[in-house]
Target: Threonine dehydratase
Amino acid sequence: MARPPTDRAPESRCDKPTGARLDTGRIRAARDVIDPVFLDTPLYRCEALEPGLGCTVSIKLETANPVRSFKARGTELVASQLADRGKEAVVCASAGNLGQALAWSGRERGLAATVVASRHATATKLDRIRALGARLELVDGDHELARERAAAISKDEGIRLVEDSLDIETCEGAATIGLELVEALSSFDVVLIALGGGALVTGVGHVVKSCAPGTEVICVQPEGAPAMTRSWHQRRVVTTGSTDTIADGVAARRPILAVLDDLLLVADDAVLVDEASIITGMRMLFEHAGLVVEPSAALGIAAILEDRDRFAGRHVVTIVCGSNVDLDLYRSWVGTDSL
Amino acid sequence: MARPPTDRAPESRCDKPTGARLDTGRIRAARDVIDPVFLDTPLYRCEALEPGLGCTVSIKLETANPVRSFKARGTELVASQLADRGKEAVVCASAGNLGQALAWSGRERGLAATVVASRHATATKLDRIRALGARLELVDGDHELARERAAAISKDEGIRLVEDSLDIETCEGAATIGLELVEALSSFDVVLIALGGGALVTGVGHVVKSCAPGTEVICVQPEGAPAMTRSWHQRRVVTTGSTDTIADGVAARRPILAVLDDLLLVADDAVLVDEASIITGMRMLFEHAGLVVEPSAALGIAAILEDRDRFAGRHVVTIVCGSNVDLDLYRSWVGTDSL
Model:
């Protein structure tokens, strides 16, 4: 019987260049800067999910930390660099998870963090940003307007703007997840990764393609927020006019060209899933894995549900990337009214 | 700002003998035998719980692994020793979590595992024991009858009986959690530990009292299953006629003298909590930490809820020891009908 995928291989070769902006040496060095509370997260096979999915499923769990998402791997890099240079403030736009992470990393290093978010962002995420001591500014519009406002604050106040997925630290921070995957003794056939702005996929994808090029890297996005997936397929930036998905963490509509370029180098495929599959995925993770997840974190399971033949008999790892979820909505999704 | 409690101190002194049966050197060596998927579990501060509890709260999460409880730390020791000696079978009685863990560890090492359980044990735990390939035998009675039947099977078949809390491997496996706590850079004022048979408390308590004797070790048991707590207070074995608690994982009624002796050496206090507090604890862990837990894993939070003044302003760590829970009951406890 094979050992589970948590032992470390003594050394990964990682000698296949991807051409992406990311650097594997810098990613390794990032591990020394990121607070250990965010590193070496659980990676384990979840057999109870397998009868319903028809493949071997392992979970990389990024929710058991102080901000309940993977985003702090990136903000730890940004905040430590700013603190080293004597900076005192930082600003970002966020749908909620990056803001929490930047608030946490900033607070640890004496940086004043400002987070700009849509007034329609998930309330529990906004509450946590405030509780972590960040200044929260809300805009009457969607995440793209928040990005514009954050850029304006950065210019006006002369402070660092953290641009998720564009700024290399956000990608290379996320990429440390990839190191933990490729250094596991078990190998995976497929890695399923939520696609929003692109930092998680380009980060993890770069490391997987450098170190374990035989592993398929598949991005998953909701049909209601397909801009980056369409861009990947058309090999040019495609924007959309609006988004319509419960997966607030990946509801972007204006892809960044530099990120798309990286994505084209490291992703083997990009697929869209519908809302019903996302909800079923959340419910399966609750019922069979005992995991509370936000919709974005169920995209990988949703992708399996929508294309079982593709994954049949293969070993799939999916990154459970966040668990900051509105409780009333969550209860309606996984609650007593179903199953 | 203090760093979170995950960095490792370079070396722990651990030079205060407790007199318990456990050996800190063996516990350190156990880390080399236990599959890494069960080690170095998340340890993090959960600030969202703190306003409701009035103290600093860190969580040691033992649910993000293939069996969703801490029990495999012990069964890994047992199974590896048996496999090294060429043994082919093993038997235990279990309320459900030990059985899953022994089934998993046995399967990994080619050991045929038999698990004896009460017919009234939590169905989802029994299902998982079967799914992991163990032979499951049900008895018409409670856990104490299952213990008797397992002992009879051991005698009849000449195979190793694993007695939870009595067998030193079950205590020293659990004790590796203690090493991970004391090697965290942050120190804790109090460790709250679920008390059932006693392996978890004697294990973690031994290490904490050896390595960080200033940290208070408090056992928590339900009022409906108070045998070991009464025994601790009276310093002699006190049995009860029955148990009445939703916390199936700790519903024991016949304490083992050798375990009580250890408990008297390593525990600073033993407290009882009522069922309503356990349910509130489960609900708080769901709502503020995004954690699905079984009732036994909420005992620590319940203890804070019942004695806020005792913990006010202190840094408390609680071990979230399992998440194998009946879904319908769980939904009724944390569901839409409340809050």
User: Anything to note?
Assistant: The CA atoms of residues 199 and 243 of chain A lie 19 Å apart. Chain A has a mean pLDDT of 94. The two ends of chain A are 33 Å apart (CA to CA).
